[in-house]
Write a structure and sequence with these properties.
Layout lengths: L11 H28 L6 H29 L13 H32 L5
Helix pairs in contact: 1-2, 1-3, 2-3
Length: 124
């Protein structure tokens, strides 16, 4: 049973997906920066790639949790409310759609960040 009460909805969930993406970006950047500073500019990114893959997997898992919550809010039982109505159900569906959209966009960004580690061979 999906509860439409607003006490369970929080705007922190809206910030969760971009926050996960931002934390992933900073963690990947710091990982490569420390790796290259420690091993030299011509060093291959072998172990750093493994760390970036682990960070990306964790970020995608977190984004999956946010997307699942958004999907459940968006597909709450009952008819979809009118888009111009100001009701509890309409806000609940809008919040779910927002969570789902931001989680999808953030997942795309995480994948693009991880692809940089795939195509860049060394620190140089």
């Amino acid at each position: 049973m999906n509860d439409l009460s607003e006490k369970h909805d929080s705007l922190w969930w809206v910030a969760a997906a971009p926050g996960i993406w931002g934390a992933h970006f900073i963690a990947c950047y710091a990982t490569v920066a420390v790796w290259c500073a420690k091993h030299g500019m011509r060093a291959p990114l072998s172990s750093a790639r493994v760390a970036i893959a682990a960070l990306s997997g964790a970020a995608l898992l977190g984004l999956g949790v946010v997307a699942l919550r958004g999907y459940r809010n968006y597909r709450a039982p009952g008819p979809l409310p009118r888009t111009d109505s100001d009701s509890r159900e309409a806000r609940h569906h809008f919040l779910g759609f927002t969570l789902l959209s931001l989680a999808g966009l953030s997942a795309i960004a995480v994948v693009y960040e991880a692809l940089a580690a795939v195509f860049i061979g060394s620190c140089h």
